[in-house]
Amino acid sequence: MVRSLSRHRLPALLCGVLAAALTVASPAAAAAAPPTLSRSDAAAGWLARQLVDGERFETEFGGVSYPDQGLTIDAIFAFAAAKVADENGAKALTWLARPEILTSYVGDGSTEAYAGATAKLTLAAQVRGADPTAFGGVDLVAQLRSLEDPSGRFADRSAWGDYSNAFSQSLALLALDRTPAGAPATAAAFLAGSRCADGGYPLLFAQATCVSDVDATALAVQALLAVDRYADAAAGLAWLTGVQAANGSFGNAAGEPNANSTGLAAQALWAGGRLISAARANIFLIGLQVGCSGPTADRGAVAYTSTGFDPATAPRATAQAVPGLAAVGFAKLSATGARGAAPTLACR
Known about the structure:
Layout: H1 39-48, E1 58-61, E2 64-67, H2 69-82, H3 86-96, H4 99-106, H5 115-127, H6 140-146, H7 166-176, H8 185-193, H9 214-226, H10 230-243, H11 259-271, H12 275-288, H13 314-325
Antiparallel strand pairs: 1-2
């Protein structure tokens, strides 16, 4: 049984890129396509075949399955980056527009409205060429703009508290930059002003001690580049290249090298023109990918860490690795021209 997941029980899922999660339901077969030698295409093809009914991801919590809108949107971004699985991308966006799925993700727009989720879904609609001002009957752009406070920060309006962070702020800038009115300068200045002394960006604002975070910095750099804050982005890029490991990887807050952080960092490095560092990150990601020696059903998937393929973490790891492997940043993502089917990794 699939139920809506209330905000207070698992708020991190609202943004989708914050927490690892279990994908538990049986996937449906995605449309077949000719085998490919492209690592990003093969990864996106594998990801498409993991979607439930070809349209969504689900997460188990307390023995119950819930819709995972955040991971589903990550998949939409991955398909657009690789320009494959367009049929699945379209079905996923249609699923996200269903009233019960939409409201449980972005809030009802009055008493409950979530900045990160609204921004992320706005960006997904834009990437798919849909109208975010009339998405499932909701004006996502208006809702997002209503969440900017006088300081320029995009904050949640919720009885359960404010869980907005640097991801929320960066996604809001990336989404609103695509609108006719553009991104608010105050919001860009707020993000730029959150930078730590070492040049990186923190996940949480107003920390007693500013601690730079790889994922937050990677997303902030892409947002700042999109709104032409090049000097602020350059500081973040310099910090990223400084913390990159010798094998090309990036680690999470605990220092664990992983595909999620490395994929996001690779996106930022490609977008910022740090090509050698970006290529090194991709080499690490390819090293995590299940190749032709692996089980046929797993080929193309990207493992979360070097410990190997884990079906619980591979969907999110693969979704976040694909844009890096495809060398496409969030500001350039578009499903236009994508092929409909989901390719497999070519093996003899």
